[in-house]
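Handout for the seminar on molecular recognition.
Each group receives one record of this type.
Step one: identify the two inputs.
Step two: read the structure output and locate the region that could contact zinc ion.
Step three: write two sentences on what you found, then compare them with the reference statements printed after the record.
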Amino acid sequence: MITAYTLFSGSTGNCTYITSGKTEILIDAGKSCLAIERALNHLGTSLSNISDIFVTHEHSDHICGLEVISKKYNIPVHFAYPSYDKAVINGTYLKRSAVRHEIFFEKKVGDVTVKSFKVPHDSMQNLGYIVDDGEDTFGTATDMGHVTEELAIELIKCRCVLIEANHDKQMLKNGPYPQFLKERILSPYGHLSNENCARLTCFLADNGVKCVTLGHLSKENNLPKLAYDEVSNLLCNNGLCVDLKVASPEEAVLLTR
Ligand SMILES: [Zn+2]
Ligand SMILES: [Zn+2]
């Protein structure tokens, strides 16, 4: 049985903790080493128990804690090569612990297997991951400009998923961001709107996914209630049901039950 928590989720930093009971891993480390260590301590564990860290992409809200973590701990940090080539070159300590992979890779860590898939975003490469312990499967895909058939097919293999509900389109259009940034977010390689997230959630629910957590919400262009309501209304209108939650930027949220 897999247990997963977002420790942090949003434009101010991302880190997801996953355990099979025997094997503990992180996806991303986009907060300080200290903040991540404190969050893990609250869950009764610590960075010294983490076997491996898997990185989605090289944007700082996903990797900014890695240099200090690599200085203090000897944890392998897995990247697809385009993100590795951009992110690792400047890291003195990260260079020692970083592992360079092909875009599609599969890594066995203790009793879990972690498998990557592509997620469209304006980074060198962005990955989603499927974590499987042989009985249970968890998947994550955020920083997603649009939903591809490939990523939807990967996510329906999972019991529980973390997906992105980045912005409310109206809030983004009327909000304070400069035009170029609005266009970047709305592009097919930007971030996923609540509306498109709702459509993806319906597809996942219709194909057997049991728990969906909405994550990576924009602080300026979204509200947890707006995201939740837009997704749950579309589920309801289609006669579908999932255990639906919203991740927090600062507090640990249990994604699996
Ligand atoms: Zn990003
Ligand atoms: Zn991000």
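Reference statements: The longest strand covers residues 112-118. The mean pLDDT is 97.
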